[in-house]
Amino acid sequence: MARFALFFLVCLYFTTSQSFAQDEPLKIGVAGLTHTHVHWILGREDIGDIKIVGIAEPNRELAQRYATQHGFSMDLVYNSLEEMIAATKPEAVTAFGTIYEHLEVVQTCAPKGIHVMVEKPLAVSLDHAQKMNALAQKHNIHLLTNYETTWYPTNHRAKELLDNGQIGALRKVIVRDGHRGPVKIGVNEEFLEWLQDPVLNGGGALTDFGCYGANLMTWLKKGKKPTSVTAVTQQLQAENNPKVDDDATIILTYEDCQAILEPSWNWPIGRKDMELYGLTGAIYADNRNTLRVRMAEGYDGFSEDISQLEERPYPYNDPFALLAAVVRGTITLNPDDLSALENNMTVVEILDAAKESARLGKTIHLKN
Q: Would you call 258 exposed, middle or buried from its count of C-beta atoms within 10 A (0-12, 13-18, 19+)?
């Protein structure tokens, strides 16, 4: 009896300890502050699922500015990623520097078993992406990519309706993303320095906003690659974007449908919207919360239903909640999921093909 009681207590201890450990906030390190999407995590409400344990940023003035804005201590700030990791032992790192630096972040973190989430897109090139993928596989880390549109309830409802056959077989998708341009919307100097750099950002509007449509389309097609990519780029604001394209149209062809992606720094308004056209109807994800469904009636008539959608439930409403859930093992991503590495490898392959198509003035055919 005494031996059984002792065994029970030992089991209870380890079960309780494991449960407590899983309830502990995920220790996150922030790599860089020059990507202004970093305000997403710095300004996030503390709900106990994550804890920022360190920030790697050599620009002390920028770090102090954000420390004042968000109320964190400069004691969290280190001059390098290596220094921050050694001092704080994060479980995961979120990358908020240049897109070119994503590879370096993974090269530093993966051998240490530290999981990584980068801001879109995954990488500046397929070469970088392949190296990142190899490191993630070798060292068994999660490597996620974050997009604003991943958290839009409208996009998820649109896919649900499509998968349920609401509008029949999919034939055409149009995705429009962008704004008036980094200069015109007043992007801060630290972000602007690399956002308009063809090396550090991997391109201009084509890269910055073309990745959204490529990501969504890969998700809608359940991971399937397009058979061809055709792209045209222009520079309509040479005075503001002297080194990169600021307008692009990308056509993706599949065996049974077509997608038109329209990334631009020349829209008069900020937009991230998607249109799905099937054989019997159309779905319009106008923004984060407004969804319209039009069903065909007769030759040119239609009925329309408009919905205002509520936010998605936790942890599907926030990148850092999802990151914590994936690292803790409570959520397993499918390869075609919006944040998944496999999806985003395809995204970078599409972007590389689009840049090559625009450069050569011809269609690029992808190998499946």
A: middle
